[in-house]
Amino acid sequence: MMNIREYEEADICKVAELCINNWKESFVGILEQNYLDGLTINFGIRLWNNHLLLNGAKIFIAEEEKKFCGFIAIHDDEEIDNCIYISSLHIHRNQREKGIGTKLIRYVGKYAYRKYQKMSICILKGNDGAKRLYERLGAEHFKDFEDNFHGTGTITQSEKLIWRNIDCFQ
C-alpha cells in the first residue's frame, strides 16, 4: 500500500540520488551530455539542502512497504499569486507506470487546496512524458521560457504549466 509522508532529514541522500539519476536518464538529448556526466550525488545533496532553505519549501515522500519510491517538492510560486509551485517530481525507474506520480500530484493538490487557488510546474522542452501526465491531470500551458537550469549556467528551453483552478483536487 502506498504511503505519502513528509520529508525527514534522513531522506536527503535518497532524494538527491533519485533526482540526479533521473536527470541523467531522462534528460539525455535535452541537456548537454557533459553536464549530465558531471552530476554527482554530492551536488544533489547541496541542491536539495538549498531547496529546503526556501521559505515554505516542503517535500513529500512516497513509500510502499517502507520502500522509497519517489518524491514531490513544492514551494510558493514566485511568479503567480496564490499559487503553489511543484519544483520537482521524481519516481524511481522501477516504480514508474504504477500511478505514484499521479498520487503525489493529487496529494499536493489536496494539500494546496486549503491555502492556494492555483498550482504550477515547469518542465524542460522535450520531456514529453511528464507533460502528458500533467496535462492529463488538468494542467494547461502558461508560458515558454529560457532557464538557467538550477543556476548551473546550463541554459534550457522550458515550459511552465498551470492548474488555473485546483478544485479538482479537493
From the alpha-carbon coordinates, what is the Rg to the nearest angstrom?
15 Å
Range of helix content? 25-40%
Query: How many strands, which pairing sense, and closed or not: the largest β-sheet?
Result: 7 strands, mixed
- What topology, given as strand order, has the largest sheet? 1-2-3-4-5-7-6
Total number of helices? 5
In short:
This protein has helices spanning 12-26, 33-38, 41-52, 100-113, 128-136; strands at residues 2-6, 58-64, 67-76, 83-91, 118-124, 140-148, 155-163.
Describe the protein.
The protein has a 7-stranded mixed beta sheet, with helices on both faces. β6 and β7 form a beta hairpin. Helix content is 33%, strand content 33%. The protein contains 5 helices and 7 strands, in the order βαααβββαβαββ. It is globular. It is an alpha+beta fold.
SSE diagram, text form:
Layout: E1 2-6, H1 12-26, H2 33-38, H3 41-52, E2 58-64, E3 67-76, E4 83-91, H4 100-113, E5 118-124, H5 128-136, E6 140-148, E7 155-163
Parallel strand pairs: 4-5
Antiparallel strand pairs: 1-2, 2-3, 3-4, 5-7, 6-7
Helix pairs in contact: 1-3
Supply database-style keywords.
single chain; 170 residues; seven-stranded mixed sheet; globular; alpha+beta
